[in-house]
Here is the input.
Amino acid sequence: MIAAEFKQRKGTGIVEFSIKGHSGYSESGSDIVCAAVSSAAYMAANTITDVIGAKPEIDLSDGFLVLKLSLQDALKCSVITEGLKLHVLALSEQYQNFIKVKISEV
Here is the structure.
């Protein structure tokens, strides 16, 4: 199962997101759920670093992505991170047995 977590701060937006695990929907290489979540997460991370120019802390390995933003960068990146959150929430509604989303205030 994929576990997605979004940590947000009032007035600032999302300051950290993590995507962990594999969905188990299908075999590796043909898993559309993993592909959808991974593609969205990479798009968000690449936009944050390469388009916006933010300097987040990133921890990345197979089936694991954590991205942490400074408060200043969180404000600049809020449209991207909110879009990612909405996309992953929509996927979790469609694939309830394969994606769980947690949203917390920090």
Q: What stands out?
A: The chain has a mean pLDDT of 96. Residues 2-105 form a domain with the Alpha-Beta Plaits fold (CATH 3.30.70.1490). Helices lie at 32-51, 71-76, 78-94. The chain has one domain: 2-105.
